[in-house]
Amino acid sequence: xxxxxxxxxxxxxxxxxxxxxxxxxxxxxxxxxxxxxxxxxxxxxxxxxxxxxxxxxxxxxxxxxxxxxxxxxxxxx
Length: 77
Hints:
The chain crosses the membrane at residues 27-49. By secondary structure, the chain is mainly α. The chain has a domain at 22-71. Helix content is 84%, strand content 0%. Helix 1 runs antiparallel to helix 2.
């Protein structure tokens, strides 16, 4: 007879692990976003003064983009 209880407990462990990983990813993303926001705001203001034109991306969009590119590198090498 086959014991399916191990498969069920493994599936529950995988779901919990994925949930924990997702929460951890969101925490790191938020921290990186908050760290990048002041820097991106200063760079945006410098570019605005130097070029006398609005940059292509605003400071929030640029910080979001930075967080999106840095966070996966932490988790997936």
